[in-house]
Amino acid sequence: TELLSLPPPKILAKFCTILPAENTHINLKNSIRADLYLLVLHFSQQHQFSETQTGGLLTLFKHLVDMILEGRELSDVVLESSQLLACQKDFHPGMRFDFYEPDQVIAVTDYLT
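Now predict its structure.
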């Protein structure tokens, strides 16, 4: 909740203290990751997502980034995100992204693609 109320520069500074990545200020890879998470939070703010919706989007984003880093095909990543957002697939057993309205699913899909 605190992050959602801060302006982007302060979010980034806070992110650098909570991300599980050291040396964000000198490591390009970690810095890019922090910037990407900042953009996801900014998107959530712009669309007035609740804390649950923002947390879900951050979880989904991390999952997709992990898939990419594992070398998964882009088509697999797109299919996975579509299935998760459309509640056609559980993220974990019994855990679905069922807290988005249809227009929010469209906005998230557009944002991720």
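The radius of gyration is 14 Å.
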